[in-house]
Amino acid sequence: MSGEFERIARLRDLFGPLPPPDLGIGDDCAVLHDPRPLVITVDSAVEGVHFDRRWLSPADIAARAVEAAVSDLAAMGAAPGELLLAWSLPRESPDDLVTALAHGVLRVTRRLGMRVAGGNLTASPVLSLTTTALGRAVGPSLRRDGARVGDLLAVTGHPGAAAVGLRALLSPRGDEPTFTDFVNRWRAPAARIAEGLALVGRAHAAIDLSDGLAQDASHLAAASGCALVLDADRLPWLPGQREAARALGFDPVELALHGGEDYELLASGPAGAFDAGWTIIGEVRAGDGVQLRRGGVTAPVEPGGWDHFTNGRGTRG
Amino acid sequence: MSGEFERIARLRDLFGPLPPPDLGIGDDCAVLHDPRPLVITVDSAVEGVHFDRRWLSPADIAARAVEAAVSDLAAMGAAPGELLLAWSLPRESPDDLVTALAHGVLRVTRRLGMRVAGGNLTASPVLSLTTTALGRAVGPSLRRDGARVGDLLAVTGHPGAAAVGLRALLSPRGDEPTFTDFVNRWRAPAARIAEGLALVGRAHAAIDLSDGLAQDASHLAAASGCALVLDADRLPWLPGQREAARALGFDPVELALHGGEDYELLASGPAGAFDAGWTIIGEVRAGDGVQLRRGGVTAPVEPGGWDHFTNGRGTRG
Predict the structure, then answer these.
(1) Which residues of chain A lie closer than 8 angstroms to B125, CB-CB?
(2) Which of A137, A168, A201 is the last residue of a domain?
(3) Torsions phi, psi for B228 (to 5 deg)
(4) Which residue blocks in chain B are alpha helix, DSSP H?
């Protein structure tokens, strides 16, 4: 296995330089001249906690790690900018692991027009990818604390679809064609950058769905000091999603609420904030916490999303 | 052990909010409004690779991890700004580990006037601290590629002093008073922010000494396309440093060249660039690589710094 400096040189070739006067890989720091307000987040993906190499190629692992970080930029309504990649690799890793991971990152940077500005390589007992994602504010950022009583709640995509895919992989039936679309949604999420940008100046608050709709909604409710009421009858399902969940022994609504790893967005705002890509699933009321309206009954939902310090699976802070 | 969200809340209390309009811990991203060019780096410290809990308290581990990242800001001549802390903690970690780590970070942020703007907590089989450090350019950044033939080379502090401390800890003699000062230099490095800032507009190039003077000088030589000649007779020693190295069975010059983890600065520039805190140790010539002048003989020095992919100990990319 080649040394750290050869690997860094290879990554510099793959990711390319930054346009002057910016300075990217190859010095002690990157230097970036964008004068707009900086929107920045960091996220880690750890083998055995957030991913399993049985189910994901190295390119998938890296792309997924980056999409998860970039999803936080989407939730703030930021324009995507640069990435810093801090990768910890087991000593026995083959040389082509770094290249394969890099190709996964390139999938995302090409999709979103992002640039790799720097990073760090280190040895570690466990494969771990920490991504710092930088964006720029194009208007007022979509914070968690802006939801107002009377707002509508809307989501992108199909909450719970990724959870169906993960449950299929955890079952003996992961290879069945019925589950292919769901497995792919878990395997290759796509941060909702365009949808987040479209909310700027229109919606009042947003958060991305990493830990499950119930858990993430509870953060929005707590930060905004109000109650979020979700309507089970309005949850947007992919074709076959409910049937696939039931075939695996799960209530599809439970997976939508508690499944996590969708990397969709949940936003709060007036009706006019939401384009065709959004589904209205509830509203904001006075009170606190998250409530579910299902079959005419409205009852509190415990967050119960995945918290890996207590539950043991991957999630994000 | 408490959950991720309680821990994040505790960290938010300890580190405090950012002054408006900036937005720190508690949303999907931090938002920062400083309009100056951004200088940014990321660095990881992994248990068993970069540190060992037998020799460092949790506060020391965290302070050291942050100083190592901030040292890259010093090397570019940047003013220190914000930190993002991505911490991976073993599941069985006691609750007070996060608090103890945070107090180590506070040591650094108070010393340098930095602010914690965000981070991420995750479970992991191994304790690992990844620090994203943000600074701002106050003038032209000190790059690695600016050294010119005829420049003088200068260092801060006492290269090799930290290596004496580490070798003492690795020996049965780590507790002897002779080694206390050296152990402390290894244990609690201090990024040379003021010294880096003082070089802006005066020196031509700089790098921090993380991997050893020879290795780091070789990066500067390669980036600048010239040869760096170091003079063994001009290396600045702490009182007792040479004797301590020899008592442990090492050549003090070898430790200065290859020891690493000093987090001092090496800079290239005209004589007028260097204040009293700097020691001139050589000059820049036409050619390539690093050479050592010792006892009247000038000979190439192999980088031979620590590269943890091939040598197995901690270093940085």
Answers:
(1) 46, 48, 125-126
(2) A137
(3) -110, 120
(4) 4-15, 58-76, 96-112, 161-170, 180-187, 193-199, 213-224, 241-247, 252-258
State the virtual CA torsion across B192, B195, B201, B206 in degrees, nearest 10. -50
User: Tens digit of pLDDT for each residue in A238-292?
Assistant: 999 999 999 999 999 999 999 999 999 999 999 999 999 999 999 999 999 999 9
Please count the residues of chain A: 317
Query: Is residue A148 located within the same domain as residue A46?
Result: no
* Predicted TM-score of the model (pTM): 0.94
Please name the member of A4, A141, A316 whose beta carbon is closest to the beta carbon of B309.
A4
Query: What pLDDT does A71 receive?
Result: 98
Q: Do B3 and A307 touch (CB under 8 A)?
A: yes
Range of the domain at B12: 4-137
Q: Does residue B289 share a domain with residue B163?
A: yes
Examine residue A80 and say whether the peptide bond preceding it is cis (omega within 30 degrees of 0): no
> Is B229 among the domain residues?
yes
Rounded CA-CA distance A74/A70 in Å is 6
Residues B87 and B159 grouped into a single domain: no
A39-77 residue pLDDT tens: 999 999 999 999 999 999 999 999 999 999 999 999 999
Q: Considering its fold, how many domains does chain B have in total?
A: 2
Q: What is the ipTM of this complex?
A: 0.93
